Protein backbone atom coordinates (compact mmCIF):
# COMPACT_ATOMS: atom_id res chain seq x y z
CA UNK A 1 0.00 0.00 0.00
CA UNK A 2 1.59 3.37 -1.03
CA UNK A 3 2.10 6.00 1.67
CA UNK A 4 0.37 9.37 1.08
CA UNK A 5 2.59 12.46 0.91
CA UNK A 6 3.28 14.09 4.28
CA UNK A 7 3.02 10.90 6.34
CA UNK A 8 5.82 9.08 8.12
CA UNK A 9 7.50 6.02 6.76
CA UNK A 10 9.93 3.52 8.30
CA UNK A 11 13.22 3.09 6.43
CA UNK A 12 14.86 -0.12 5.12
CA UNK A 13 12.99 -3.29 6.20
CA UNK A 14 9.41 -1.99 6.32
CA UNK A 15 7.70 -3.07 9.50
CA UNK A 16 4.03 -2.11 9.18
CA UNK A 17 3.34 -2.92 12.81
CA UNK A 18 5.98 -0.47 14.03
CA UNK A 19 4.84 2.09 11.48
CA UNK A 20 1.24 1.85 12.68
CA UNK A 21 2.39 2.18 16.30
CA UNK A 22 4.25 5.36 15.44
CA UNK A 23 1.32 6.76 13.44
CA UNK A 24 -1.04 6.08 16.32
CA UNK A 25 -3.12 3.57 14.32
CA UNK A 26 -2.42 0.68 16.65
CA UNK A 27 -1.99 0.59 20.41
CA UNK A 28 1.66 0.30 21.44
CA UNK A 29 2.72 -2.77 23.44
CA UNK A 30 2.84 -2.37 27.19
CA UNK A 31 6.61 -2.33 27.50
CA UNK A 32 8.91 0.39 28.79
CA UNK A 33 11.43 -0.50 26.06
CA UNK A 34 9.84 0.20 22.66
CA UNK A 35 12.29 -0.37 19.77
CA UNK A 36 13.42 2.81 18.07
CA UNK A 37 13.19 3.26 14.30
CA UNK A 38 14.53 5.78 11.86
CA UNK A 39 11.75 8.06 10.65
CA UNK A 40 11.68 9.89 7.33
CA UNK A 41 9.34 12.50 5.84
CA UNK A 42 7.73 12.27 2.43
CA UNK A 43 7.58 15.54 0.53
CA UNK A 44 4.21 16.88 -0.60
CA UNK A 45 3.65 16.10 -4.27
CA UNK A 46 6.23 13.32 -4.37
CA UNK A 47 5.56 11.06 -7.34
CA UNK A 48 7.25 7.96 -6.02
CA UNK A 49 6.24 8.33 -2.39
CA UNK A 50 9.81 7.65 -1.25
CA UNK A 51 11.22 9.33 1.88
CA UNK A 52 13.40 12.38 1.31
CA UNK A 53 14.44 13.82 4.66
CA UNK A 54 15.46 12.10 7.89
CA UNK A 55 13.81 13.36 11.09
CA UNK A 56 15.14 12.98 14.65
CA UNK A 57 12.20 11.27 16.31
CA UNK A 58 13.63 11.59 19.81
CA UNK A 59 14.96 15.13 20.03
CA UNK A 60 14.96 15.04 23.81
CA UNK A 61 17.81 12.53 23.90
CA UNK A 62 20.71 14.27 25.65
CA UNK A 63 24.38 14.36 24.86
CA UNK A 64 26.33 12.14 27.27
CA UNK A 65 27.59 13.35 30.61
CA UNK A 66 31.39 13.56 30.92
CA UNK A 67 31.79 13.30 27.13
CA UNK A 68 33.93 15.18 24.64
CA UNK A 69 31.63 18.18 24.53
CA UNK A 70 31.65 18.29 28.32
CA UNK A 71 35.45 18.41 28.50
CA UNK A 72 35.54 21.02 25.74
CA UNK A 73 33.39 23.17 28.02
CA UNK A 74 35.81 22.54 30.87
CA UNK A 75 38.82 23.58 28.77
CA UNK A 76 37.22 26.74 27.43
CA UNK A 77 35.92 27.40 30.93
CA UNK A 78 39.55 27.86 31.94
CA UNK A 79 39.59 30.97 29.74
CA UNK A 80 36.52 32.32 31.53
CA UNK A 81 38.19 31.81 34.89
CA UNK A 82 41.41 33.25 33.42
CA UNK A 83 39.51 36.47 32.78
CA UNK A 84 37.21 36.76 35.77
CA UNK A 85 39.48 35.41 38.49
CA UNK A 86 42.77 36.49 36.94
CA UNK A 87 41.65 40.09 37.18
CA UNK A 88 40.25 39.58 40.69
CA UNK A 89 43.44 37.88 41.92
CA UNK A 90 45.52 40.72 40.53
CA UNK A 91 43.66 43.32 42.59
CA UNK A 92 46.16 42.94 45.41
CA UNK A 93 48.68 44.62 43.09
CA UNK A 94 46.21 47.35 42.12
CA UNK A 95 45.34 47.89 45.80
CA UNK A 96 48.98 48.68 46.62
CA UNK A 97 49.48 50.77 43.44
CA UNK A 98 46.33 52.86 43.91
CA UNK A 99 47.12 53.48 47.57
CA UNK A 100 50.75 54.41 47.00
CA UNK A 101 51.00 56.05 43.56
CA UNK A 102 47.67 56.84 41.90
CA UNK A 103 45.09 58.15 44.37
CA UNK A 104 45.61 61.12 46.74
CA UNK A 105 47.83 60.52 49.77
CA UNK A 106 45.84 59.41 52.79
CA UNK A 107 43.16 57.52 50.86
CA UNK A 108 41.94 54.75 53.17
CA UNK A 109 42.94 51.18 52.24
CA UNK A 110 39.47 50.12 53.35
CA UNK A 111 37.86 52.49 50.84
CA UNK A 112 40.12 51.27 48.04
CA UNK A 113 39.33 47.66 48.86
CA UNK A 114 35.65 48.32 48.09
CA UNK A 115 36.63 48.35 44.40
CA UNK A 116 37.97 44.81 44.52
CA UNK A 117 35.34 43.51 46.93
CA UNK A 118 32.49 44.86 44.78
CA UNK A 119 33.99 43.19 41.73
CA UNK A 120 34.48 39.93 43.63
CA UNK A 121 30.99 40.05 45.14
CA UNK A 122 29.33 40.47 41.75
CA UNK A 123 31.26 37.50 40.35
CA UNK A 124 29.28 35.36 42.81
CA UNK A 125 26.39 37.56 43.88
CA UNK A 126 24.45 37.50 40.62
CA UNK A 127 23.82 33.80 41.12
CA UNK A 128 20.05 33.94 41.69
CA UNK A 129 19.00 36.29 38.85
CA UNK A 130 21.49 34.83 36.39
CA UNK A 131 20.61 31.28 37.43
CA UNK A 132 16.90 31.90 36.91
CA UNK A 133 17.53 33.41 33.47
CA UNK A 134 19.67 30.41 32.53
CA UNK A 135 16.94 28.04 33.73
CA UNK A 136 14.48 29.87 31.46
CA UNK A 137 16.68 29.41 28.41
CA UNK A 138 18.45 32.77 28.19
CA UNK A 139 21.99 31.49 28.70
CA UNK A 140 23.44 32.86 25.48
CA UNK A 141 21.85 36.28 26.00
CA UNK A 142 23.27 36.53 29.53
CA UNK A 143 26.69 35.14 28.58
CA UNK A 144 27.26 37.28 25.49
CA UNK A 145 25.92 40.45 27.15
CA UNK A 146 28.13 39.86 30.17
CA UNK A 147 31.20 39.52 27.96
CA UNK A 148 30.49 42.87 26.32
CA UNK A 149 29.83 44.63 29.65
CA UNK A 150 33.00 43.19 31.17
CA UNK A 151 35.20 44.40 28.31
CA UNK A 152 33.49 47.79 28.31
CA UNK A 153 34.27 48.17 32.02
CA UNK A 154 37.95 47.22 31.65
CA UNK A 155 38.55 49.61 28.75
CA UNK A 156 36.65 52.48 30.41
CA UNK A 157 38.70 52.09 33.61
CA UNK A 158 41.56 53.69 31.67
CA UNK A 159 39.80 57.07 31.92
CA UNK A 160 39.11 56.89 35.68
CA UNK A 161 41.11 59.20 37.96
CA UNK A 162 39.09 59.33 41.20
CA UNK A 163 38.12 56.75 43.79
CA UNK A 164 34.39 56.94 43.07
CA UNK A 165 34.88 56.57 39.30
CA UNK A 166 37.19 53.59 39.83
CA UNK A 167 34.59 51.97 42.07
CA UNK A 168 31.81 52.63 39.54
CA UNK A 169 33.66 51.37 36.47
CA UNK A 170 36.28 48.86 37.67
CA UNK A 171 34.23 47.62 40.60
CA UNK A 172 30.58 47.83 39.57
CA UNK A 173 30.44 47.69 35.75
CA UNK A 174 33.35 45.28 35.26
CA UNK A 175 32.11 43.17 38.17
CA UNK A 176 28.60 43.07 36.68
CA UNK A 177 29.97 41.69 33.43
CA UNK A 178 32.18 39.20 35.27
CA UNK A 179 29.22 37.98 37.32
CA UNK A 180 27.02 37.47 34.27
CA UNK A 181 29.76 35.52 32.50
CA UNK A 182 30.99 33.49 35.47
CA UNK A 183 27.67 32.55 37.10
CA UNK A 184 26.07 31.51 33.81
CA UNK A 185 29.17 29.51 32.84
CA UNK A 186 29.28 27.67 36.18
CA UNK A 187 25.61 26.69 35.90
CA UNK A 188 26.15 25.54 32.32
CA UNK A 189 29.23 23.52 33.27
CA UNK A 190 27.33 21.77 36.07
CA UNK A 191 24.90 20.35 33.51
CA UNK A 192 27.67 18.55 31.59
CA UNK A 193 29.19 16.46 34.42
CA UNK A 194 28.04 14.14 37.15
CA UNK A 195 29.18 14.41 40.76
CA UNK A 196 32.19 12.13 40.31
CA UNK A 197 33.70 14.13 37.45
CA UNK A 198 32.64 17.68 38.29
CA UNK A 199 35.56 18.23 40.66
CA UNK A 200 38.12 17.34 37.99
CA UNK A 201 36.30 19.50 35.45
CA UNK A 202 36.28 22.42 37.87
CA UNK A 203 39.99 21.90 38.58
CA UNK A 204 40.81 22.09 34.87
CA UNK A 205 38.74 25.24 34.52
CA UNK A 206 39.99 26.74 37.76
CA UNK A 207 43.60 26.39 36.63
CA UNK A 208 42.88 29.48 34.56
CA UNK A 209 42.55 31.47 37.78
CA UNK A 210 46.19 30.98 38.77
CA UNK A 211 47.51 31.41 35.24
CA UNK A 212 45.34 34.48 34.72
CA UNK A 213 46.40 35.99 38.03
CA UNK A 214 50.09 35.55 37.19
CA UNK A 215 49.65 36.89 33.63
CA UNK A 216 47.66 39.92 34.76
CA UNK A 217 50.04 40.68 37.64
CA UNK A 218 53.19 40.42 35.52
CA UNK A 219 51.64 42.45 32.69
CA UNK A 220 50.21 45.09 35.03
CA UNK A 221 53.44 45.45 37.02
CA UNK A 222 55.48 45.92 33.84
CA UNK A 223 53.18 48.34 32.04
CA UNK A 224 52.29 50.38 35.15
CA UNK A 225 55.98 51.21 35.51
CA UNK A 226 56.63 51.89 31.82
CA UNK A 227 53.35 53.18 30.34
CA UNK A 228 51.12 54.24 33.24
CA UNK A 229 47.65 53.25 34.40
CA UNK A 230 45.50 54.10 31.30
CA UNK A 231 47.65 52.17 28.81
CA UNK A 232 47.91 49.26 31.22
CA UNK A 233 44.13 48.90 31.43
CA UNK A 234 43.78 48.99 27.63
CA UNK A 235 46.37 46.22 27.29
CA UNK A 236 44.61 44.12 29.93
CA UNK A 237 41.34 44.71 28.09
CA UNK A 238 42.86 43.40 24.87
CA UNK A 239 44.06 40.26 26.68
CA UNK A 240 40.56 39.73 28.10
CA UNK A 241 38.91 40.20 24.70
CA UNK A 242 41.13 37.57 23.09
CA UNK A 243 40.49 35.08 25.91
CA UNK A 244 36.70 35.49 25.74
CA UNK A 245 36.35 34.54 22.07
CA UNK A 246 36.51 30.68 22.40
CA UNK A 247 34.04 30.44 25.33
CA UNK A 248 31.51 32.59 23.49
CA UNK A 249 31.68 30.17 20.57
CA UNK A 250 31.50 26.95 22.63
CA UNK A 251 29.43 27.38 25.81
CA UNK A 252 25.81 26.27 26.07
CA UNK A 253 23.58 24.43 28.55
CA UNK A 254 23.21 20.68 28.10
CA UNK A 255 19.67 19.60 27.29
CA UNK A 256 18.06 23.01 26.91
CA UNK A 257 18.12 22.89 23.11
CA UNK A 258 15.72 19.93 23.31
CA UNK A 259 13.02 21.65 25.36
CA UNK A 260 10.76 24.41 24.18
CA UNK A 261 11.32 27.80 25.78
CA UNK A 262 7.75 27.72 27.11
CA UNK A 263 8.47 24.42 28.87
CA UNK A 264 11.72 25.77 30.30
CA UNK A 265 9.89 28.79 31.70
CA UNK A 266 7.29 26.52 33.31
CA UNK A 267 10.03 24.46 34.95
CA UNK A 268 11.93 27.52 36.19
CA UNK A 269 8.82 29.27 37.51
CA UNK A 270 7.71 26.15 39.40
CA UNK A 271 10.71 26.26 41.74
CA UNK A 272 9.33 25.75 45.24
CA UNK A 273 10.64 27.44 48.37
CA UNK A 274 10.89 23.93 49.81
CA UNK A 275 13.94 23.45 47.61
CA UNK A 276 15.91 25.76 49.89
CA UNK A 277 14.71 24.96 53.39
CA UNK A 278 16.41 21.65 54.11
CA UNK A 279 18.60 22.05 57.21
CA UNK A 280 21.72 20.75 55.47
CA UNK A 281 21.30 23.20 52.58
CA UNK A 282 20.83 26.22 54.87
CA UNK A 283 23.75 25.29 57.13
CA UNK A 284 25.96 24.80 54.08
CA UNK A 285 24.99 28.25 52.79
CA UNK A 286 25.98 29.78 56.14
CA UNK A 287 29.25 27.84 56.12
CA UNK A 288 30.13 29.04 52.62
CA UNK A 289 29.37 32.62 53.66
CA UNK A 290 31.71 32.45 56.66
CA UNK A 291 34.50 30.67 54.77
CA UNK A 292 34.53 33.19 51.94
CA UNK A 293 34.32 36.05 54.44
CA UNK A 294 37.93 35.34 55.36
CA UNK A 295 39.58 33.40 52.55
CA UNK A 296 40.49 36.34 50.27
CA UNK A 297 41.98 38.53 53.00
CA UNK A 298 45.39 36.94 52.52
CA UNK A 299 45.36 37.39 48.75
CA UNK A 300 44.45 41.09 48.98
CA UNK A 301 46.40 42.28 52.04
CA UNK A 302 49.54 40.15 52.17
CA UNK A 303 51.14 42.36 49.48
CA UNK A 304 50.41 45.59 51.34
CA UNK A 305 51.52 43.93 54.60
CA UNK A 306 54.90 43.08 53.06
CA UNK A 307 55.22 46.60 51.65
CA UNK A 308 54.16 48.63 54.69
CA UNK A 309 55.17 46.44 57.63
CA UNK A 310 58.21 44.55 56.33
CA UNK A 311 59.35 47.48 54.16
CA UNK A 312 59.94 45.24 51.16
CA UNK A 313 60.38 46.72 47.69
CA UNK A 314 57.47 46.86 45.25
CA UNK A 315 58.95 44.02 43.21
CA UNK A 316 59.48 41.80 46.26
CA UNK A 317 55.96 42.50 47.55
CA UNK A 318 54.38 41.69 44.19
CA UNK A 319 56.47 38.53 43.87
CA UNK A 320 54.87 37.35 47.10
CA UNK A 321 51.47 37.32 45.37
CA UNK A 322 52.92 35.58 42.31
CA UNK A 323 54.40 32.85 44.53
CA UNK A 324 51.04 32.45 46.24
CA UNK A 325 49.22 32.01 42.93
CA UNK A 326 51.90 29.64 41.62
CA UNK A 327 51.39 27.41 44.68
CA UNK A 328 47.64 27.77 44.18
CA UNK A 329 47.82 25.99 40.81
CA UNK A 330 48.82 22.46 41.99
CA UNK A 331 46.63 23.02 45.03
CA UNK A 332 43.60 23.02 42.75
CA UNK A 333 44.25 19.59 41.23
CA UNK A 334 45.06 17.56 44.36
CA UNK A 335 41.80 18.32 46.24
CA UNK A 336 39.80 17.73 43.05
CA UNK A 337 41.47 14.34 42.59
CA UNK A 338 40.83 13.36 46.21
CA UNK A 339 37.23 14.54 45.91
CA UNK A 340 36.44 12.70 42.68
CA UNK A 341 38.27 9.46 43.39
CA UNK A 342 37.89 9.05 47.14
CA UNK A 343 35.78 11.01 49.59
CA UNK A 344 33.65 13.59 47.76
CA UNK A 345 33.71 17.40 47.66
CA UNK A 346 32.18 18.17 51.06
CA UNK A 347 34.58 15.84 52.89
CA UNK A 348 37.50 17.49 51.05
CA UNK A 349 36.60 21.16 51.36
CA UNK A 350 36.22 21.01 55.16
CA UNK A 351 39.90 20.22 55.94
CA UNK A 352 40.94 22.76 53.29
CA UNK A 353 39.10 25.45 55.23
CA UNK A 354 40.68 24.47 58.56
CA UNK A 355 44.17 24.37 57.00
CA UNK A 356 43.62 27.84 55.54
CA UNK A 357 42.71 29.12 59.00
CA UNK A 358 45.90 27.55 60.33
CA UNK A 359 47.95 29.44 57.72
CA UNK A 360 46.44 32.74 58.84
CA UNK A 361 47.44 31.75 62.38
CA UNK A 362 51.02 31.16 61.19
CA UNK A 363 51.00 34.59 59.54
CA UNK A 364 49.93 36.10 62.86
CA UNK A 365 52.71 34.22 64.67
CA UNK A 366 55.36 35.73 62.38
CA UNK A 367 54.59 39.24 63.60
CA UNK A 368 56.16 42.27 61.92
CA UNK A 369 59.67 40.85 61.97
CA UNK A 370 62.03 43.29 60.27
CA UNK A 371 62.95 42.65 56.65
CA UNK A 372 62.92 38.85 56.81
CA UNK A 373 60.71 37.83 53.92
CA UNK A 374 61.64 34.13 53.85
CA UNK A 375 59.16 32.93 56.53
CA UNK A 376 56.35 35.05 55.06
CA UNK A 377 57.05 33.64 51.58
CA UNK A 378 56.74 30.09 52.94
CA UNK A 379 53.46 30.92 54.68
CA UNK A 380 52.14 32.66 51.54
CA UNK A 381 52.93 29.65 49.37
CA UNK A 382 51.37 27.22 51.83
CA UNK A 383 48.28 29.44 52.12
CA UNK A 384 47.96 29.61 48.34
CA UNK A 385 48.17 25.81 48.15
CA UNK A 386 45.64 24.89 50.85
CA UNK A 387 43.13 27.66 50.08
CA UNK A 388 42.91 26.33 46.51
CA UNK A 389 40.74 23.52 47.84
CA UNK A 390 38.09 26.06 48.85
CA UNK A 391 38.25 27.86 45.53
CA UNK A 392 37.94 24.73 43.39
CA UNK A 393 35.48 22.66 45.45
CA UNK A 394 32.81 25.20 46.40
CA UNK A 395 30.88 24.54 43.17
CA UNK A 396 30.97 20.70 43.40
CA UNK A 397 29.91 21.02 47.04
CA UNK A 398 26.97 23.24 46.10
CA UNK A 399 26.13 20.77 43.32
CA UNK A 400 25.73 17.89 45.78
CA UNK A 401 23.29 19.87 47.93
CA UNK A 402 21.29 20.87 44.86
CA UNK A 403 20.93 17.27 43.68
CA UNK A 404 19.66 16.19 47.09
CA UNK A 405 16.37 17.92 46.29
CA UNK A 406 15.88 16.47 42.77
CA UNK A 407 13.32 13.64 42.49
CA UNK A 408 14.55 10.59 40.58
CA UNK A 409 12.19 8.36 38.56
CA UNK A 410 11.86 4.79 39.77
CA UNK A 411 10.54 3.30 36.49
CA UNK A 412 11.34 3.60 32.80
CA UNK A 413 9.75 6.67 31.21
CA UNK A 414 8.36 7.24 27.75
CA UNK A 415 9.49 10.12 25.56
CA UNK A 416 6.51 12.29 26.48
CA UNK A 417 6.97 11.54 30.18
CA UNK A 418 10.64 12.49 30.01
CA UNK A 419 9.69 15.75 28.28
CA UNK A 420 7.14 16.57 30.98
CA UNK A 421 9.56 15.86 33.82
CA UNK A 422 12.34 18.37 34.61
CA UNK A 423 15.94 17.22 34.38
CA UNK A 424 18.12 17.14 37.48
CA UNK A 425 19.70 20.34 36.20
CA UNK A 426 16.56 22.21 35.11
CA UNK A 427 16.47 24.20 38.37
CA UNK A 428 20.20 24.04 38.96
CA UNK A 429 20.61 27.75 38.22
CA UNK A 430 18.41 29.08 41.00
CA UNK A 431 19.47 26.36 43.47
CA UNK A 432 23.17 27.02 43.06
CA UNK A 433 22.62 30.74 42.61
CA UNK A 434 21.19 31.11 46.11
CA UNK A 435 24.43 29.86 47.70
CA UNK A 436 26.54 31.82 45.21
CA UNK A 437 24.73 34.96 46.36
CA UNK A 438 25.71 34.20 49.96
CA UNK A 439 29.32 33.79 48.80
CA UNK A 440 29.08 37.07 46.88
CA UNK A 441 27.86 38.93 49.97
CA UNK A 442 30.78 37.53 51.95
CA UNK A 443 33.24 38.65 49.27
CA UNK A 444 31.66 42.12 49.24
CA UNK A 445 32.14 42.82 52.94
CA UNK A 446 35.07 40.54 53.87
CA UNK A 447 38.10 42.53 52.68
CA UNK A 448 36.61 45.97 53.57
CA UNK A 449 36.05 44.73 57.13
CA UNK A 450 39.67 43.61 57.21
CA UNK A 451 40.78 46.99 55.85
CA UNK A 452 38.69 48.83 58.44
CA UNK A 453 40.30 46.81 61.23
CA UNK A 454 43.77 47.63 59.86
CA UNK A 455 42.85 51.33 59.71
CA UNK A 456 41.43 51.27 63.25
CA UNK A 457 44.64 49.95 64.79
CA UNK A 458 46.85 52.16 62.61
CA UNK A 459 45.07 55.41 63.50
CA UNK A 460 45.35 54.63 67.21
CA UNK A 461 49.04 53.87 66.99
CA UNK A 462 48.67 50.26 68.10
CA UNK A 463 51.41 47.73 67.50
CA UNK A 464 50.87 45.18 64.74
CA UNK A 465 48.15 47.01 62.77
CA UNK A 466 47.16 43.87 60.87
CA UNK A 467 46.54 41.72 63.95
CA UNK A 468 42.82 42.44 64.30
CA UNK A 469 42.14 41.73 60.63
CA UNK A 470 44.14 38.50 60.81
CA UNK A 471 42.11 37.33 63.81
CA UNK A 472 38.90 38.19 61.94
CA UNK A 473 39.93 36.19 58.85
CA UNK A 474 41.06 33.19 60.90
CA UNK A 475 37.87 33.08 62.99
CA UNK A 476 35.69 33.39 59.88
CA UNK A 477 37.42 30.40 58.32
CA UNK A 478 37.18 28.33 61.50
CA UNK A 479 33.47 29.05 61.90
CA UNK A 480 32.85 28.33 58.22
CA UNK A 481 34.57 24.96 58.51
CA UNK A 482 32.50 24.10 61.59
CA UNK A 483 29.26 25.04 59.82
CA UNK A 484 30.07 22.87 56.80
CA UNK A 485 30.94 20.02 59.15
CA UNK A 486 27.51 20.49 60.76
CA UNK A 487 25.86 20.45 57.32
CA UNK A 488 27.56 17.13 56.60
CA UNK A 489 26.20 15.68 59.84
CA UNK A 490 22.73 17.00 59.01
CA UNK A 491 22.92 15.43 55.56
CA UNK A 492 24.43 11.98 56.15
CA UNK A 493 25.27 11.76 59.86
CA UNK A 494 28.64 10.76 61.32
CA UNK A 495 29.19 7.61 59.26
CA UNK A 496 32.32 7.41 57.16
CA UNK A 497 30.99 7.69 53.62
CA UNK A 498 31.41 9.79 50.51
CA UNK A 499 29.79 13.24 50.70
From TrEMBL:
TM spans, by residue?
70-94, 114-134, 141-166, 172-193, 200-219, 231-251, 272-300, 320-339, 346-366, 432-454, 466-486
Q: Does the keyword Cell cycle apply?
A: no
Which keywords describe this protein according to UniProt? Answer: Membrane, Transmembrane, Transmembrane helix
One matching Pfam family, short form? Answer: MFS_1
Subcellular localization is given as: Membrane
> Which Gene Ontology CC terms are recorded?
membrane
InterPro entries assigned: MFS, MFS_trans_sf, Proton-linked_MCT
Recorded GO MF terms: transmembrane transporter activity
Membrane topology term: Multi-pass membrane protein
Stated family: Belongs to the major facilitator superfamily. Monocarboxylate porter (TC 2.A.1.13) family.
Q: What is this protein called?
A: Major facilitator superfamily (MFS) profile domain-containing protein
Which species does this protein come from? Friedmanniomyces simplex
Q: What is the lineage of its organism?
A: Eukaryota, Fungi, Dikarya, Ascomycota, Pezizomycotina
Amino acid sequence: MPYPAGLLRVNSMVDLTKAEHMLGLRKAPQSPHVPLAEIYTVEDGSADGLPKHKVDAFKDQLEPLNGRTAWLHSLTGALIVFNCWGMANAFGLFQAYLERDYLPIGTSPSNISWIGSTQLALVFGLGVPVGRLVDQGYFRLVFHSGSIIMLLGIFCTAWCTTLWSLWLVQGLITGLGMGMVFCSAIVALMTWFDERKLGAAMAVGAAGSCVGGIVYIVAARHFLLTHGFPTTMRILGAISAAALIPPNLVFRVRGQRNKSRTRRRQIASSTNIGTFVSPAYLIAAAGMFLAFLGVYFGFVYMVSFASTQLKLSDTASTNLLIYMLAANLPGRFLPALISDKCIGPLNTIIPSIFLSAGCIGLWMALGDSGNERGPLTVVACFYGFVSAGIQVLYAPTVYTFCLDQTPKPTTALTVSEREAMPLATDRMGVKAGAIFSCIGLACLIGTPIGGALVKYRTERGMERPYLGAQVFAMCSLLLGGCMLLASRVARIGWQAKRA
